[in-house]
Specification:
With 374 residues, this protein is α+β, with helices and mostly antiparallel strands. It folds into 4 domains: 128 residues, conserved putative lor/sdh protein from methanococcus maripaludis s2 fold; 90 residues, Elongation Factor Tu (Ef-tu), domain 3, CATH 2.40.30.170; 61 residues, OB fold (Dihydrolipoamide Acetyltransferase, E2P) (Beta Barrel), CATH 2.40.50; 78 residues. The chain is 24% helix and 36% strand. It has 5 helices and 22 strands. Strands 3-12-15-14-13-16 form a 6-stranded antiparallel beta barrel. It has a 4-stranded antiparallel β-sheet with strand order 1-19-18-17, covered by helices on one side. Helix 1 crosses helix 5 and helix 3 packs antiparallel against helix 4. The radius of gyration is 40 Å and the shape is elongated. The protein starts with a helix and ends with a helix. Belongs to the membrane fusion protein (MFP) (TC 8.A.1) family. Keywords: Transport. InterPro entries: Beta-barrel_RND_2, MFP_Cation_Efflux, RND_pump_MFP.
Length: 374
């Protein structure tokens, strides 16, 4: 279809103004790689110009790896005091919100702990009153220092005991400030520490768990890492802070951007080094263990380049069209080098410095030249 459109343009050029030929014949002595057009013919197709430019060419480094979770974002949930699992609704892959109840445990020791706290709190009030009374008596020398010191020690001992019991209650998510004789319970809830999803579930209803047992493994997706492997020969092309674009094999059209945050210091047996990259934005489709492909733009040498659309290929060789005047163009062979970001390196470019080179319309000129040759 593209060729049909190009030849249609050539047909229009050929018929424009009632002329028989698309391009005028070159002047005597000119080679057959020169085209000359009338003003009317030039206006019948898009044409723009450029010059050699000095730019840095970026090459694409393709590597692969898997999504990983840093230790601080992979949380193992256990119970501080143990107990029987009364209920839980979690399943692997399920999402949850911070502060949501993820399990309820039940045990006699929760009742005993609440009883001990309330008892210590009552005894503390009595000890405080006795301490204040002995303090006043001691000031007036109505009681001995020994009695006063004993009252003070009893009060401080109970104060330490109550504080210790408060912390134990907080470990099982029972608020001491709200605890009273009327709401002593036998259950303790477990709350989600962040927004995330469940990686693994190790318990079921009715199972007894000790403090050393892991109930759930939870993942915080806000800080997922991409663990990539780069071969030794390409290691010098990778730097911290470089941007990357990653995609999975299942959905190559969906790109995830990010930056490299860490480069490993050990070369594996396969002569590869691990690099860690961080995604710019969290996504629920990214899960630990997912295989990913990544592309990193690597800067090459600072060199003289031309836009890709200025380069045309004919019989396996590369050419550009140089403007000899406003309406005359010469097809000139060039040697190309690295390419990237829409630019192509030109090797040995001295003969093109300062020249006016066709950018848009180069292929149209090529087809016109081929048509003239035929």
């Amino acid at each position: 279809m593209k060729n049909i459109k190009i030849f249609f343009i050539l047909f229009v050029l050929s018929g424009c103004g009632g002329k028989e030929n698309t391009a005028q014949e070159p002047a005597p002595g000119e080679a057959g790689n020169v085209l000359q057009f009338s003003e009317e013919q030039l206006n019948s197709f898009p044409l723009s110009f450029t010059e050699l430019q000095e730019q840095t060419i970026y090459n694409t480094l393709k590597i692969n790896g898997v999504i990983d979770v840093p230790p601080q974002n992979l949380v193992s949930v256990s119970s501080a005091l143990g107990g029987y699992v009364k209920s839980t609704r979690l399943l692997p892959g399920m999402h949850f919100k911070k502060g949501e109840v993820i399990a309820i445990l039940e045990d006699n020791q929760y009742i005993q702990l609440q009883q001990d706290y309330l008892t210590a709190n009552t005894q503390l009030q009595k000890a405080l009153a006795e301490f204040n009374r002995q303090k006043e008596l001691n000031l007036s020398k109505a009681s001995s220092d020994k009695v006063y010191q004993q009252a003070k020690a009893d009060y401080e001992t109970l104060l330490i005991s109550r504080q210790s019991l408060e912390e134990k209650l907080r470990l099982i998510n029972i608020d001491p400030a709200r605890l009273n004789v009327n709401n002593i319970g036998r259950t303790a809830p477990l709350f989600a520490p962040f927004d995330g999803y469940v990686s693994q579930v190790f318990v079921n209803t009715g199972k007894y768990v000790s403090p050393s047992d892991v109930l759930f493994e939870l993942v915080d997706p806000k800080d997922l890492h991409l663990n990539l492997k780069v071969f030794e020969k390409d290691l010098d092309k990778v730097n911290i802070g470089q941007s990357f674009s990653a995609y999975s094999n299942n959905n190559p059209g969906r790109k995830y951007s990010g930056k490299i945050i860490l480069i490993g210091k050990k070369i594996s047996e396969g002569r590869a080094v691990e690099i860690h990259a961080h995604f710019d934005k969290a996504d629920t489709h990214l899960i630990p263990g997912l295989y990913m492909n990544a592309e990193i733009e690597v800067p090459d040498n600072n060199t003289l380049v031309l836009p890709e659309e200025s380069i045309v290929t004919f019989e396996g060789k590369s050419y550009i069209f140089k403007a000899l005047s406003n309406n005359r163009f010469e097809m000139t062979p060039v040697q190309t080098g690295s390419s990237g970001n829409g630019w192509v390196e030109i090797a040995g470019p001295d003969h093109l410095r300062g020249e006016k080179i066709v950018r848009k319309g180069a292929y149209t000129l090529l087809m016109a030249l081929k048509n003239k040759a035929e």
